[in-house]
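Subject: design request, 717 residues
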């Protein structure tokens, strides 16, 4: 552990020297890499000036990189791993940043990485796999963001920023057709309506065929992993005065598809109940991407989501700005898993879920001489439930039902001071109060509980800008997440004490806290070369890992409470080798040390030690002003574990994976249309998203990311 930390510090020191040494290189007259403006600190700043590790993606270039949803972002950010496995659904996403994420999807488990769309927090990710057709920018903030982003950002935050109505009048139509029945189409339009109003509309559909068949369900109507979705978003922006604007946005999506690919291993656990009942691996499909289930009700998955957001932006004075964001969102889904993977109904969990949320945020931001500040009040409310009826599991009969209501209140503030033109210091505080009311039915009665949480989060940072524009920073951040109830307290089933004594195993964990120490450097040492590097150590206390076993008469998921220290290094760069040859790369290394619990030494689940990517892009100008562009993207995620145990006997190790995308585009001379041939996962790498050993069977959730080749056409008006 100490040797690894020394190596990381040596690497960042060498990177710093390399960055400065290259300032002596010859400067080019033209600027080939423009500084990106981000809102990571809830105010507009150059990405170089933000004292945290931030990755930014230009919405106009996502398709060229093979990014068609949030899941694909996880292939190109250091120390970010995004999995898809919740409830067997094809539209779920589970981000893990620096070893922190969410292993489950049930309403009582909170994500460790928050996702925001235009400042609105998305409480749930199942059924809200945000489409990327109207995106201005995506920001990935790494490390705890407790001061400005609140309670569920102990690992980091993902900001999705859509295009502002009126910012770029015109229209764009895109179309994709490819293998695996790929058929995508979308439209984006932006128009000024009179002097005081602008309107934008985006809408479209996505279709991708299955990766396998439901062998015993010839009339299922869907393939394994099939996904179809339609979506739309309408936004209005009203200029109320020279100093105030009101933006109204409404969106909706409707998805349907087939249960995601997975398989079950039985023979590997000869002492398990499934093996003991006479079933064998031969009862499961020989092709793991086919499925032998006999339960037609679980073959089809669906999801719906909709929301409305209103944003009032008012420049109170030349130096003071206020913003009010109000939003309401609804989502529901139907999914589940037939865990046994064979025709008999031995282990099955049909599931429907829903979540409704309302949020309000009021901000006052401003500057005064060498001072600047961000402040605000925040309110969030969520009601949600998950219902499994009928659950078929060994001796457990009937319904499993879980619901939770959450109310969260917070106030926050951050102040920065420019000591001089080059040196800046800042600090912030956030106070949060959370209340959770949870209810569960495990077949023999209703159990309920209610609890309040509160916490103060804070951060301190300093950054210095050198004459060449390079920025060096140091920061200490804290993060907070309220305690969590067990996701599946089947330990209550058959409890002789009954609901009147429901505190024996339906208890929430304590507050989860994090402190992150980070040092980094970023900027452009010379024109044509942009880089960022960071080294960090993050200490987590009372962190819950979800551990599932087949005890207590059912699928019992409990919180294993651990203390964890994560130490790592991150690097990103963009380099123009020539005016027409661009090279981008990212590298992440993380060492996670989890305190031993008795004789058990847990590991961080779904956390690869090494992540990296590289992307060459070559432009071939043509004599008529058009150009051909070839881009390739390679991403690597190291081996990891599907659950918090590295015991080889549990067989939950997940192999490393190498993924390759490419894009060959022709761009017209007037830049109004593009035609492209693309390949995604061109080598057809098949890999696991997750693995789970319940003690009675081994469950492997497989990727839905098979190779795909096709054509794309984009026309701008």
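Subject: RE: design request

Done. Sequence follows.
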């Amino acid at each position: 552990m100490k040797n690894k930390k020394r190596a990381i510090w040596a690497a960042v020191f060498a990177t710093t020297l390399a960055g400065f040494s290259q300032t002596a290189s010859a400067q080019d007259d033209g600027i080939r890499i423009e500084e990106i403006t981000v809102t990571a600190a809830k105010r507009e700043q150059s990405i170089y000036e933000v004292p945290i590790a931030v990755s930014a993606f230009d919405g106009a270039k996502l398709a060229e990189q093979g990014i068609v949803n949030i899941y694909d972002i996880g292939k190109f950010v250091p120390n970010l791993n995004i999995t898809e496995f919740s409830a067997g659904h094809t539209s779920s996403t589970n981000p893990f940043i620096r070893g922190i994420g969410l292993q489950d999807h049930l309403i009582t488990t909170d994500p460790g990485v928050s996702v925001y769309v235009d400042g609105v927090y998305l409480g749930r990710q199942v059924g809200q796999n945000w489409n990327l057709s109207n995106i201005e920018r995506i920001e990935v903030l790494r490390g705890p963001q407790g001061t400005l982003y609140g309670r569920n950002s102990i690992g980091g935050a993902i900001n999705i920023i859509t295009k502002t109505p009126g910012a770029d009048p015109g229209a764009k139509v895109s179309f994709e057709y490819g293998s695996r029945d790929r058929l995508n189409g979308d439209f984006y339009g932006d128009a000024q309506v009179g002097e005081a109003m602008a309107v934008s509309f985006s809408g479209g559909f996505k279709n991708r065929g299955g990766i396998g068949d439901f062998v015993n369900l010839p009339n299922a109507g869907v393939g394994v992993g099939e996904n179809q979705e339609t979506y739309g978003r309408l936004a209005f922006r009203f200029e109320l005065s020279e100093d105030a604007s009101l933006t109204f946005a409404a969106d909706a999506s409707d998805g349907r598809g087939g249960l995601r690919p997975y398989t079950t291993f039985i023979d590997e656990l000869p002492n398990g109940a499934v093996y003991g009942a006479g079933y064998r691996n031969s009862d499961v499909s020989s092709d793991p991407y086919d499925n032998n289930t006999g339960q037609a009700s679980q073959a089809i998955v669906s999801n719906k989501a909709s929301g409305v957001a209103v944003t009032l932006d008012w420049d109170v004075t030349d130096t003071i700005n206020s913003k009010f964001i109000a939003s309401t969102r609804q989502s529901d889904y139907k999914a589940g898993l037939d865990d046994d993977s064979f025709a008999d109904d031995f282990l099955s969990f049909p599931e429907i879920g829903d979540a409704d949320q309302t949020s309000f945020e009021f901000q006052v931001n401003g500057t005064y001489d060498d001072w600047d500040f961000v402040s605000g009040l925040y309110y969030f409310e969520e009601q949600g439930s998950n219902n499994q009826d009928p659950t078929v599991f060994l001796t457990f009969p009937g319904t499993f039902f879980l619901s939770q209501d959450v109310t969260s209140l917070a106030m926050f503030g951050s102040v920065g001071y420019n000591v001089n033109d080059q040196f800046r210091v800042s600090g912030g505080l956030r106070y949060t109060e959370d209340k959770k009311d949870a209810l569960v039915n495990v077949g023999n009665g209703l159990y309920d509980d209610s609890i309040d949480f509160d916490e103060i989060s804070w951060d301190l940072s300093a950054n210095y800008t050198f004459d060449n524009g390079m920025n060096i920073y140091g920061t200490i951040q804290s993060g907070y997440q309220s305690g969590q109830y067990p996701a599946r307290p089947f330990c209550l089933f058959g409890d002789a004490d009954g609901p009147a004594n429901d505190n024996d195993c339906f208890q929430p964990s304590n507050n989860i806290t994090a402190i992150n120490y980070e040092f980094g450097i970023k900027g452009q040492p010379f024109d044509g070369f942009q880089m960022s590097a960071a080294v960090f150590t993050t200490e987590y206390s009372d962190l819950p890992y979800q551990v599932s076993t087949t005890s207590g008469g059912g699928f019992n998921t409990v919180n294993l409470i651990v203390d964890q220290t994560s130490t790592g290094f991150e690097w990103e760069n963009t380099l123009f080798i020539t005016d027409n040859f661009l090279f981008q790369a990212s590298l992440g290394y993380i060492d996670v040390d989890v305190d031993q619990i008795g004789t058990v030494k847990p590991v961080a689940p779904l956390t690869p030690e090494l992540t990296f990517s590289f992307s060459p892009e070559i432009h071939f100008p043509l004599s008529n002003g058009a150009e051909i562009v070839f881009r390739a993207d390679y991403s690597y995620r190291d081996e990891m574990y599907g659950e918090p145990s590295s015991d080889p006997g549990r067989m939950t190790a997940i192999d490393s994976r190498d993924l390759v995308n490419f894009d060959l585009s022709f761009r017209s001379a007037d830049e109004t249309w593009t035609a492209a041939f693309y390949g995604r996962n061109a080598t057809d790498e098949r890999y696991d998203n997750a693995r789970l050993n319940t003690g009675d069977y081994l469950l492997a959730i497989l990727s839905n990311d098979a190779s795909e080749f096709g054509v794309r056409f984009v026309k701008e008006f």
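DSSP finds four helices and 37 strands in the chain.
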